Structure formats: C-alpha cells, structure tokens
Amino acid sequence: MQGHGPAALAALVFVIAACNPFAQKRAVEISSGEGEVAYSSRWNATLATPSDLAGALQVKGSAWMAPSSDGNGTRVHVSISNAAPGGVHPWMVHQGRCGDDRGVVGQASDYQPLRVSAEGTASQDAILSIPEPKTGEYFVNVHASASNMGTSIACGNLAPPVR
C-alpha cells in the first residue's frame, strides 16, 4: 500500500464498511402514504381483469386490508390503473375467492366508488366497522358500474399476513 497515502486507505475503509454483511438493516416497508401500514402486517391482493373480459379490458391494481388506526375496525385500500378515464366503479371486499362469492364484508355503503382520473387511475379507502379478520378467505371485487354490479372488471384474492 506504499505510496497510496491516507486517501486510498480511507476509500478502502469506506468500501469495506459499505459491504458489511453483518450490518443491521430495517425490514422493508411499503408505504401507501397517510396512515402507513407495514406490508407484512396486512392482507394483500393483486387485482386483474377476469379472463372472460381479457382483450376488452386490462385493468390492474392492488388492494390491502389491515386494522384501522384505532384498532376497532378494518381499513381497506384499493388502487387500479389502465381503466377507462371518467369511469365510476363500485368496489367491495367479499368473503370467498374470485369466482366464489360468499357475500360482502361490512355494508355496501361503507365503500365509496372508484372515480377514474384522466390518466386511467383511481384509488379509494374504506373503514369497515368490523375487526380485521384473522382467518378466512377474502377478495376485492371492482364492478363495472352501479347499474352493472354483475360484471367484475378487476378482482384479486387477499392473502393473509404472515403472523
């Protein structure tokens, strides 16, 4: 190392410290903005257009549910993209799986519709007055419109958190 001086030594120490495999790192958290909820502590879903509408639509998105900030209810968030600008789409959490609907979770009035922006995106939150489920099967369904609730433009099964 002769002739390289203190600057080279400092650079070497920096590189070794940056590559330290024993360094403690924070767990990855995905933020949704206001009222952040750790990704690992919530139910998560990836939304997609059902196969019978493939080619006509290709809506995609994500959803999650977790305990509300007061711990007495359940907060649900849904976000979609690639939707028709100006569209208004009711959405809800249901018991069961996509294609096997066993009823709406909470009241239909708990869910404000998704209003699609000029860019084809929309997101919405709902606070349900029921505790977050600990077990079971749930899915998020985005309906075509208030007058066409029988057509789903996006659906996703919620995977439970790893506890």
Could you characterize what this model shows?
- The protein is mostly beta strands.
- 9% of the residues lie in helices and 39% in strands.
- It is built from 1 helix and 10 strands.
- The strands form 3 sheets. The chain has a 4-stranded antiparallel beta sheet, with no helix packed on it.
- It is globular and about 40 Å long.
- The N and C termini lie far apart (51 Å).
- Residues 11-34 have low confidence and may be disordered.
Order of helices and strands: HEEEEEEEEEE
Residues in β-strands, percent: 35-45%
Rg, nearest Å: 22 Å
- Fraction in helix: under 10%
- State the total count of DSSP E strands: 10
Secondary-structure-derived class: mainly beta
Tell me the overall shape: globular
Q: State mean pLDDT (0 to 100 scale).
A: 82
Distance between the termini: 51 Å
Provide the spatial order of strands within the biggest beta sheet: 1-2-3-8
Could you name the ranges where pLDDT drops below 50 across 5 or more consecutive residues?
A: 11-34
**How many helix segments?**
1
Largest sheet: 4 strands, antiparallel
